[in-house]
Amino acid sequence: HSSLLALDPSQPTSTQNPSTGDSGNYLIGVGRADCTGPIAEIPLMGFANADQVGGGLLTRLYSRAFIVAEPDNSKRVVFVSADIGMVSQKLRLEVLNELKSKYGELYRQDNVILSGTHTHSGPAGYFQYTLFWITSRGLIKPSLQAVVKGIVKSIDIAHENMKAGRIFINRGTVENSQINRSPYSYLQNPASERNRYSSNTDKEMVLLKMVAANGQELGLISWFAVHPVSMNNTNHLVNSDNVGYASYLFEQEKNKGMLPGEGSFVAAFASSNLGDVSPNTRGPFCINTGDSCDNPQSTCPVGGAKMCMAMGPGTDMFDSTRIIGQNIYLKAKEIYTSASQEITGPLSSAHQWVNMSDVSVTLNATHVVKTCKPALGHSFAAGTIDGVGAFNFTQGAVEGDPFWDSIRDQLLGKPSNETQACHDPKPILLRTGEMTWPYPWHPDIVDVQLATIGSLAIVAVPGELTTMSGRRLREAVRSEFESHGTSGMNVVIAGLCNVYTHYITTYEEYQVQRYEAASTIYGPHTLSAYMQLYRGLAKAIATNTVQDLPSGPEPPLFNITSLTLVPAVIADRTPSNKAFGDVLQEVGQQYRVGEVAEVTFVSANPRNSAENATEHNFLTVERYINSSGSWSVVHNDASWETRFYWTKGLLGLSNARVEWHIPSTTEPGTYRIRYFGHYKKIPLFQPAVYYAFEGTSSVFEIISL
């Protein structure tokens, strides 16, 4: 097996220009599909902030799919990166059921990897475990359906467009785009280990470039470790954050003349070991005094932990998103252009379900340790410098708080002595593994998965590994391959895959119980367990014994169709003497580039559109073409330059405000802004009816500076 992975002399060598078309080593398909879902009244997934509900749209969310098959079509690997907070177990199981009904045994548990980018500005509500219902307000069917449909559609498109092609790999260092948000935890790792690395974050981007045999550029996957939290927990506009903006820039460049979301080139900026990595590069400051709060507890002298927030490099969160996204894009562009090392060799994939609450880990000849039933520590409630928690919880709590513990005991019950001892030194706040009403609060059964494309190994991890955890896991997988004769594997961590299990810190980081450690739900030996499990998968692939791997205990799929506190959409109304789409506040007559054109319309609930039109576009900016006497669309609601704000009034009244932040590239001329929606009527004793409508601003001029 290992000899196949070595460079075959008959294959083109790495110095060959990637664009010269010789027949491909693989069949490759790429696809992109909208997975935005409802953009209003639905909580956003990520910061667990009850006030953070959707109220409009900055950029659309997409699922990006990549299928690689061996030339004889015998084996396939699918990698999907979706602009969502994380992949949930329910989401994965529903996607796999759909794929099975369409494609039989072609796309399966073992060869389909689903990864979330970890944007914190996408709709929540697609989880089956109870803990996630609290901040998501339950299981929200339109949210779940939009993501299932989008992922499946992106795979369908990739499946229908398979062509012979080649894959190249490259690496580069991304500067000025991340900081470690728990440096005190990182310093607990052995000095001898830290000394091997130049930084307390992984600055390396790994990129795959995919080119068809005829020279057509197909797409790319980039893996880079950074939290997509440039948009903070005060944001209410659905968007894909910094990594989504990098995708947007790359796709706009390659799909020339196309609107966002259109065009065949697909660029995925996927998540990696981002657990302790923030894009807010100015670091943590007390928002009330301006002092640094870069201390082990992330607290401020006045106001405590609630005042300690990290700031991005920009003037506001939109600007910070743009700056970090552009940094990532520019490095990707550079290493994409120069990529010349070709990936060749067979495909393989391995998957197991594991009961993570009960794994025995052999540390060495004399020590066997165990993982624990899931539980969250006190510092989980503190949040992070990217999004602080409520009340007075602080990071780094290694003792419980009598006040909160007594409330917890009354409401939710006390953790068992066994679970508390297993998680030591974590003071348990929520004993989620012992809470089963109305359904289990956390998963026990977790996916571990590994796929190889020639010399590339993709480790699909069900959570957020910290920087050092990721380094240890990559090294474990690489050395396992090596010990079975397969050397020089390129190992990448794909984060937020398959099922969400919060964080995975190192044993040493766990001891000081900052947020990431308090959220390492299977206890201090979680990372060691994963290292053992992924080594097992690597060994099976390297020794060609994948068929002998036990598949493990199957996870439950709870039969919950919808269970939510999100209010139903009532019938929409207009103010008297107004119709849907009428202008309430008009645009100005003329603008210069750099200014903001805005217009407010009589609107209806945007949830109507998510539920009644797939890939609904809420707005266009249009330019008048004199020669043809017609209007041409220059931006849509997925454009970075446009913002759609929805404001709910009383008893079915609402307004929509469209902003166009006029970019410097805008040509002078005559423009207008249009808005598209659906209003809902509820006739007596009959099902609701939805009607499409539109509104158009007055025309306005863009004049040159």
UniProtKB/TrEMBL annotation:
Protein residues bound to Zn(2+): H118, H227, E464, Y503
UniProt-listed InterPro entries: Ceramidase_alk, NCDase_C_sf, NEUT/ALK_ceramidase_C, NEUT/ALK_ceramidase_N
Annotated catalytic residues: S278 (nucleophile)
Record domain Neutral/alkaline non-lysosomal ceramidase C-terminal: where: 535-702
Pfam families: Ceramidase_alk (PF04734), Ceramidse_alk_C (PF17048)
Residue intervals of the Neutral/alkaline non-lysosomal ceramidase N-terminal domain: 26-532
Biased composition, class Polar residues, residue ranges: 10-23
One GO process term, biological-process aspect: sphingosine biosynthetic process
Assigned keywords, A-Z: Hydrolase, Lipid metabolism, Metal-binding, Sphingolipid metabolism, Zinc
Keyword Zinc-finger: no
Region (Disordered): 1-24
Cofactor list: Zn(2+)
GO cellular component, one term: plasma membrane
Family the UniProt entry places it in: Belongs to the neutral ceramidase family.
Protein name (Swiss-Prot/TrEMBL): Neutral ceramidase
